[in-house]
């Protein structure tokens, strides 16, 4: 048993060194360029290697012929591939993901990984948002490299503002999450403030970029948010989106943290390690107050 544990630790050390003790920003910029090469041999070899090491499955993709590896990264799915939970009392997962930490924000803290907490203030920076979610519910949704990389509206809502925060590109895999404190607060990220049509609740999505990713495309903002972006940090929006409507995509895979105010409850199936698909139930909306006439 000791030998097995030692071997696992050694493998984690090697994984950590390979994915984090390298020139992350330089490699990320190189990968952004390389993935867009449209030369057939480069494209085919790249996708073949990706399939070999990640278990990439393209059967649900809307097309099978891609002009580049980037085109494959940002693929769309066939119609109907992600059935949408239509119950208006449910917030749905905005993406395909593995659930990381989830639960209540307590004393302004939330969990990154077992034994590692971080401050809501360090992630969001905005006092109004920190106050709104001080005792709220959150779910950390991690996208792996082989997953579908587009993300969608968790409910009928209006996107009110996008805040871009430039940062590092640490890997967000479980090994790094257990070793790098405040990792999400260090990485590049966007903060999407939305207002639900139902009840006016404020829901915030935080897409966090990572190594080899560091590019986030949003339909509501006519800019590409990436390491070279030098535009305004705050981008005002007034864009309505329907539940399940596409909001944007990552260039590869990363993480989305969903925040809901007090009164929202995560669904029973949403727990650390669970796999979710876009459109599946994520959280229960607060029950509407009964009208006076309906009270006993």
Description:
- It is a single chain.
- This protein has about 300 residues and is α+β, with helices and mostly antiparallel strands.
- The chain folds into two domains: about 1-75, no CATH class; about 90-285, no CATH class.
- Helix content is about 25%, strand content about 30%.
- It has eight helices and 17 strands.
- It has helices spanning about 1-20, 25-35, 40-55, 70-75, 120-125, 125-130, 175, 185; strands at about 90, 95-105, 110-115, 115-120, 135-140, 150, 155-165, 190-195, 200-210, 215-220, 225, 235-240, 245-250, 255-260, 265, 275, 280-285.
- The strands form four sheets. It has an eight-stranded antiparallel β-sheet, with no helix packed on it.
- Strand 8 and strand 9 form a beta hairpin.
- The relative contact order is 0.19.
Task: Give a quick summary of the entry.
With 296 residues, the chain is of the alpha+beta class.
Q: Give me the Rg, rounded.
A: 19 Å
> Strands of the largest sheet, in order across it?
12-7-8-9-14-5-2-16
Shape: globular
How many helices in DSSP terms?
Answer: 8
Major β-sheet annotation? 8 strands, antiparallel
Let me know the average pLDDT: 83
- The N- to C-terminal Cα distance equals 62 Å
- Judged by helices, strands and strand pairing, the structural class is alpha+beta
Helix content: 10-25%
Which H/E pattern describes the elements?
Answer: HHHHEEEEHHEEEHHEEEEEEEEEE
């Amino acid at each position: 048993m000791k030998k097995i544990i030692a071997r696992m630790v050694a493998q984690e050390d090697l994984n950590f060194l390979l994915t984090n003790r390298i020139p992350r920003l330089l490699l990320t910029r190189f990968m952004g360029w390389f993935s867009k090469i449209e030369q057939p041999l480069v494209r085919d070899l790249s996708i073949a290697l990706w399939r070999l090491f990640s278990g990439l499955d393209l059967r649900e993709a809307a097309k099978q012929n891609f002009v580049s590896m980037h085109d494959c990264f940002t693929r769309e799915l066939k119609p109907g591939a992600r059935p949408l939970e239509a119950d208006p009392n449910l917030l749905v997962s905005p993406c395909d993901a593995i659930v990381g930490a989830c639960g209540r924000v307590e004393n302004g803290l939330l969990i990154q990984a077992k034994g590692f907490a971080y401050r809501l203030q360090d992630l969001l920076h905005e006092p109004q948002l920190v106050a709104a979610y001080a005792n709220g519910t959150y779910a950390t949704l991690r996208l792996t490299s082989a997953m579908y990389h587009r993300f969608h509206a968790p409910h009928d809502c209006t996107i009110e503002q996008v805040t871009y925060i430039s940062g590092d590109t640490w890997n967000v895999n479980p090994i790094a999450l257990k070793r790098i404190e405040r990792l999400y607060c260090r990485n590049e990220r966007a903060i999407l403030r939305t207002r639900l049509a139902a009840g006016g609740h404020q829901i915030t999505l935080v897409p966090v970029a990572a190594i080899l990713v560091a590019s986030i495309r949003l339909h509501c903002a006519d800019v590409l948010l990436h390491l070279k972006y030098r535009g305004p940090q705050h981008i005002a929006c007034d864009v309505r989106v329907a539940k399940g409507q596409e909001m944007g995509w990552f260039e590869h895979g990363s993480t989305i943290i969903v925040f809901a105010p007090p009164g929202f409850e995560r669904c029973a199936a949403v727990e650390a390690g669970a796999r979710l698909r876009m459109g599946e139930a994520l959280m229960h909306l607060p029950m509407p107050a009964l009208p006076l006439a309906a009270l006993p």
